[in-house]
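Support request, please re-run this one:
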Amino acid sequence: MRNLDHMLSRVLARHDELGAALAKGLDGERYVKLSKEFAEISPVAEAIRELRQTQAELRGAAEIADDPGSDGEMRALAEEERRRLEGEVEELERRVRILLLPKDAADEKNAILEVRAGTGGEEAALFGADLLRMYQRYAERQGWRFELLHLSETGLGGVKEAAATISGRGVFARLKFESGVHRVQRVPATEASGRIHTSAATVAVLPEAEEVDIKIDEKDLRIDVFRSSGPGGQSVNTTDSAVRITHLPTGIVVQQQDEKSQHKNKAKALKVLRARLYDMERAKADAERAAQRKSQVGSGDRSERIRTYNFPQGRVTDHRINLTLYKIDRVMDGELDEIIDALIASDQAERLAELE
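Re-run finished. Output below.
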């Protein structure tokens, strides 16, 4: 990282400056703004001070270890201390560099999860249902709230497409690498001959956008209402409560029919539309940045095959980071932290390399 020491000194100076300003007492709006910045910068400043303290201790140990006039036993102890402190400094430098990486503005947002069955017919829909259940279990493990927005099922319990909101702390930060094509290899329950089939489902994780993030002009929308229908075409209710919203400038279409109230369906559809428009803006900015990047762990490319779930071999492989785990049952039960942590670490390493 270029001019690391200079950058660290600037962070510490800014932290001191903010602390002094807040201590004087400020008016409401300015106080809130500076308090937020102070809270964000404090963990970085704390890590920098710990790094500098450890570096000073390392210099002291090195002086004793390298001093030929020092007592032999003292030099041996100092050399041992130097080796320990060198490891600490290396780890602290890595921590500070990660803390200095530009933050993704969407990381703290809630997310909208979309799952769609892909190639593979009924088996793909059944796998879609498995993925939806996997993310629901993961959300429960994290203490997040999982709420279905839309569910289109097949007669055998599969999911043709589904959407859900996941709310909680740091949801998007942990789920954003899940977007892409998920492939399954297994013997379908409907397969009499016991042959292994390959099918797929697509997952999209979108940061939930607030109205302040995305302004939608009513004149850009075409809103159609119609009667809801369930699997097989039967009527879900007898009023025109289903809503289809078309965003004319982009051609994005969102349909919502799960609620009996037209007003609620419209609100849910607008939430999904806002998330998709926000995601489009982010994807455009990411593509511009990616022009200089060698790879993209977090590209969110919906057409990219990101993971394979092989049931006969009991393995899950994430192709982006060449990670294979032989515990498919636990993964499908929502134990995703090992995969997600590895993806986050890979993304951090890639971004750190860009700053070298």
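The chain has eight helices and eleven strands. The two ends are 4 Å apart (CA to CA).
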